[in-house]
């Protein structure tokens, strides 16, 4: 595991020494990228200024190592606070009793200040098990200058224009879509949006709950659209050996024109490229139902086995505050969950907030909406499909076997009962 920074010395940020007898609060975070790292180090420093009797040991891990380790922490010797994700990914730890019930922190006034959908995502029954602090839009981030150079006058708004843009960019020697699938989840973004645009949110969530077979004709339709782009070589070469962080460099160097990614990428834009970057929602495919979007919600939690739950509650209550969420999200260019917090005066996040506000429904993200076990198998299948589309049938059978093992037999349609 790559432990990027263990800030048992977080007080060095303040250039002070903890008072004798200070209590220790151990916090494990998945915030290793530059912008979230800086934002959270500043937040922890601010917390310690307000609570000088608490010494925070702030451990920062890279995201992929973190995902592989959190279950071991929760079932072994857990820290006092963990960072994680809302919805299904949270509930998988609530069910076996690994996360603390923090409903006492949710006063009526606080509940009124939290976005309703975010509150639902950290609730099981009538109880709350985490604090949501940020969410963000996902869509196509693109280089206006590269599209214009290829003769693409407008960003793609529908499937036909997306395919056309791909053809024109390829003719100019520009890779249409940067993507890095080494960590698997970037490929899942393409699956999510093709499904949401072809089949809608209700179908997508039924699929995520294991109530639809991956060999269903409607799932096959997703891959046929995807195959159209693969056959045109629309995706960056060597994507399976690149992370999303590495693949974003293709945008900045002018080698690729577009990338399907979350708004967290904006904080990474180089100064000399930022003004040439733009954002558009994933293009429509069918117009006979609403527009649905991915809007992942990030959270923090107290492990059930934490030693210092009292100070952990203080930390979570601190992060719930509008002023704290405003500062974090302005630094990371994301959207605060607290409705009383202002968003950054930034064109990408303002447009993203408006996009999500107008959406007809929101999903999280493939690996946050379904079983972790199934997600890992399916995302490997998505990556394999992008490399070897001719193996689709075997890929779908493998994913379906995993669905059946994890979720059981498909529900019997009402008409057949």
Question: Would you identify the regions where 5 or more consecutive residues have pLDDT less than 50?
Answer: 1-18
Counted beta strands: 14
Strand content: 15-25%
Could you give the order of strands across the largest sheet?
A: 1-3-2-4-13-7
Rg (CA only): 22 Å
Distance from first to last alpha carbon: 51 Å
Q: Could you walk me through the main structural features you see in this protein, from its secondary elements to its overall organization?
A:
- With 417 residues, the protein is of the alpha/beta class.
- It has helices spanning 34-50, 63-75, 88-94, 108-113, 116-121, 144-149, 159-171, 185-208, 217-231, 244-247, 249-252, 271-274, 309-320, 322-332, 347-358, 366-369, 372-387, 392-407; strands at 3-7, 23-29, 54-61, 81-85, 123-124, 127-128, 131-135, 138-143, 175-177, 256-262, 277-280, 292-294, 297-301, 361-363.
- Strands 1-3-2-4-13-7 form a six-stranded mixed sheet, with helices on both faces. Strands 9-10-8-11 form a four-stranded mixed sheet. A two-stranded antiparallel sheet has the order 5-6.
- It is globular and about 65 Å long.
Brief descriptors of the model:
417 residues, alpha/beta, six-stranded mixed beta sheet, four-stranded mixed beta sheet, 46% helix, disordered N terminus
Can you lay out the helices and strands and say which pair or pack?
Blueprint: E1 3-7, E2 23-29, H1 34-50, E3 54-61, H2 63-75, E4 81-85, H3 88-94, H4 108-113, H5 116-121, E5 123-124, E6 127-128, E7 131-135, E8 138-143, H6 144-149, H7 159-171, E9 175-177, H8 185-208, H9 217-231, H10 244-247, H11 249-252, E10 256-262, H12 271-274, E11 277-280, E12 292-294, E13 297-301, H13 309-320, H14 322-332, H15 347-358, E14 361-363, H16 366-369, H17 372-387, H18 392-407
Parallel strand pairs: 2-3, 2-4, 9-10, 12-14
Antiparallel strand pairs: 1-3, 4-13, 5-6, 7-13, 8-10, 8-11
Helix pairs in contact: 1-14, 8-9, 8-17, 17-18
């Amino acid at each position: 595991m790559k432990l990027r920074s263990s800030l048992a010395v977080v007080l060095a940020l303040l250039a002070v020494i903890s008072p004798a007898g200070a209590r220790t609060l151990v916090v494990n975070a998945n915030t290793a990228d530059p912008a979230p790292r800086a934002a959270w180090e500043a937040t922890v420093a601010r917390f310690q200024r307000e609570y000088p009797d608490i010494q925070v040991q702030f451990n920062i891990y890279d995201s992929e190592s973190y995902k592989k380790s959190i279950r071991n922490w929760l079932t072994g010797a857990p820290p006092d606070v963990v960072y994680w994700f809302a919805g299904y990914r949270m509930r998988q730890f609530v069910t076996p009793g690994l996360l603390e019930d923090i409903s006492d922190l949710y006063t009526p006034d606080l509940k009124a200040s939290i976005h309703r959908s975010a509150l639902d995502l950290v609730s099981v029954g009538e109880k709350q098990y985490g604090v949501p602090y940020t969410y963000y839009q996902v869509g196509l981030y693109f280089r206006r200058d590269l599209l214009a150079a290829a003769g693409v006058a407008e960003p793609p708004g529908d499937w036909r224009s997306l395919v056309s843009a791909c053809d024109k960019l390829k003719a100019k020697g520009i890779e249409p879509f940067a993507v890095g699938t080494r960590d698997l989840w970037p490929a899942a973004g393409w699956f999510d949006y093709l499904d949401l645009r072809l089949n809608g949110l209700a179908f997508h969530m039924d699929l995520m709950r294991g109530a639809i077979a991956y060999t269903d004709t409607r799932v096959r339709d997703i891959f046929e659209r995807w195959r159209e782009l693969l056959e045109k070589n629309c995706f960056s070469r060597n994507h399976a050996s690149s992370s999303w962080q590495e693949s974003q460099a293709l945008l900045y160097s002018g080698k690729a024109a577009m990338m399907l990614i979350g708004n967290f990428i904006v904080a990474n834009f180089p100064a000399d490229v930022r003004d040439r970057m733009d954002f558009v929602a994933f293009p429509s495919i069918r117009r006979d139902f609403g527009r649905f979007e991915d809007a992942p919600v990030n959270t923090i939690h107290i492990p059930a086995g934490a030693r210092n739950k009292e100070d952990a509650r203080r930390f979570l209550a601190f992060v719930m505050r509008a002023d704290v969420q405003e500062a974090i999200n302005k630094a990371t260019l994301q959207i605060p969950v607290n409705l009383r917090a202002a968003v950054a005066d930034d064109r990408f996040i303002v447009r993203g907030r408006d996009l999500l506000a107008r959406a007809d429904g929101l999903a999280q993200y493939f690996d946050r909406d379904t079983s972790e076990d199934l997600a890992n198998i399916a995302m490997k299948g998505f990556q394999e499909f992008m490399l070897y589309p001719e193996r689709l049938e075997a890929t779908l059978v493998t994913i379906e076997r995993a669905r059946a093992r994890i979720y059981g037999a498909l529900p019997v349609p009402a008409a057949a009962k």
